[in-house]
Amino acid sequence: MVFYWEDKDGNRILVWASTQYGYGGASFGLFPNNRFVPETVSNMETCMARHLPLMEEKYPYDVWLLACYDDNAEPDLEVTNSIQAWNAKWEWPKFRTLGDPGEPFRILREKYDGKIPVIRGDLAGGWYQHPITAAELLAQKFEADRLLPTAEKWSSVAAVLDENYEYPAVDFRRAWDHLLFNDEHSYGTSGYQGRRVYETWLQHRDWIDRAQATAQQENAAALKAIAAKIPAQSGNVAVFNPSALDRRERVELSGGRWGLVDVPAFGYRVVDEKTLPSDGKVARSASQPPVIENRFYRVSFGENGAMASIIDKEQGRELLDLTNPYGANEMIYTKDNHKTFLVPEKAEFQVVTGCGQTVVTVKTRQQDLGAEMVQTITLPDHEKRIDIDNRLYHAKDMFNNRRYYRYLYFAFPFAVENCRRLCHLNGAVAEYAKDATGHCTDVYMAVNEWCCAENEDHGVALMMLDSQLMEYDHIHPDKTDFGDAGEGSQMFAYVATDWLQMHLAGGSHLDYQFRYSITSYTGNYEEACVPQTAERYANPVQVVALSEQTGTLPGDSYSFLRVDGGQRLVALKRADDSNGLIARLYGREQGTSFVTGDGKVLAAERVRVDETPLAGAEVSGSGFSTYRLG
């Protein structure tokens, strides 16, 4: 299967996909791990006689790339012996083993470029489901994914401010390796059984733990080093902003003091803790499902803790489909592979107001899952957002010896008529079920940070931190289906399965955390700055207590780096060759420049992702870009 995959800017990559996994040679009589015997060539001849006419009829190229291996296999001399014997007898077709897989791609480009089909859209593979078999580790991994680049950013600043600060390049490299290794697909949930699956996940956990520990340690060390250079009085704190966005954030400190703090792009603001108000909080238990509101929303709860109604007060519009059987943030559990669906039982509520927000704590349980659930729903006074923190404790039923039956979802049945359903992937924004090549399923998409449903007038966006798969319209029991994605705006976060748990020796329960945030808007997601809101949600400000000290940095606020062009600052790191800093951006270019807080424009050279010169290569106007800052 050969094709060009093309993005929305017209950039292409040539792809060869093996539809036979590692047994691409089987049709030709070539099998991994089969001993070479004198009959091997005659068996290959029989297979060739049957298969080559089919290829002549259906395959328009004269080069074929095949994979011939078993999982976790060492190099197989028996395969090369078979190839050698075949080539010695027959002039055509010739087999070659490849040290450089680029060679057949070059042949295809040179001879068949105009004949190779072009496809566009997402290829939503079945492997996307496998990480949610260990949803608690996936959430931890996402946390490390977010914090590690933040630690790199602050470490880069610390090293620039102090020539004696040791930039931890080796530790960062190892941490990134650990996260990349963890993204490899060996989740042990297909045909694998027993101890080696358990040991695979021990390794995954170790990689995640190590990467997260590095991110936490280096982030704290860098912020401490930067904070030491800020002049301060007793009781001062510095609020650090890891994004390249000016932002206003609610900050709550010890003793109940809180305030809204304006923090410049990729910089800090010093706050005198004594000047912040201490309103105190008022807590009350609610015997009936409560109704809470601020100037943006009026939220009504149902008996089991789900949100039964969300009114956008600015638009005068109900955000939820009230005909749907589920409320917003309602947990849905099936233990019989989607034959029946179970929801939480009657909930207890507590409402806390004060310090610039209203917080509802919901306590409930789901008896069949065996889990207690605590849901925290927060309405901040200053921003149009509903923050959600779901925690499940002691989910015992996930452990069983009959996997592929238990699935966990959270419902968000939004009501947006005639909508487009958009999902932010790893950079690109794709339309659910429409931006699909047709070669894989269209029932879910792997979402990064946010997704939405919108029409020409308004929309609703859901931001997410700990899960990745999203289905629209309805829960799809058949995860391999295509063409029945529906048209509805209802969202169902597909968060966990039992595919792995049967392998865990002595497993007794699982604890999960799933966090979301809802926002609604007029216009489209770009006009409403949904990507920027999601970036702030995923990358909160960080507070560091300051000592009474002198320093070389400004004592009120400072921006270490602004990106004048509107792109997102994805990464800032020391260059691999130690020559300057490397900035990675995402977004459409609009005259990009890098400016420090004192107005200095930094010299910037556009380079490749591997930090080498572009050498005259064409540059796309959107997507990811890399610069060397001098």
Notes on the structure:
This protein has 630 residues and is an alpha+beta fold. Helix content is 20%, strand content 30%. It contains 7 helices and 35 strands. The strands form 8 sheets. A 10-stranded antiparallel sheet has the order 8-14-15-16-17-26-23-22-19-20. Strands 13-18-25-24-21 form a 5-stranded antiparallel sheet, with no helix packed on it. The protein has a 4-stranded antiparallel sheet with strand order 27-4-7-28, with helices on one face. The chain starts with a strand and ends with a strand. The mean pLDDT is 92.
Q: What share of the residues lie within helices? A: 10-25%
Our measurement of the CA-to-CA distance between the termini, rounded to an integer number of angstroms, reads: 45 Å
What is the overall shape? globular
Count of β-strands: 35
Number of helices: 7
Question: Which features characterize this protein?
Answer:
5-stranded antiparallel sheet, single chain, 20% helix, 7 helices, 630 residues, alpha+beta, 35 strands, 10-stranded antiparallel sheet
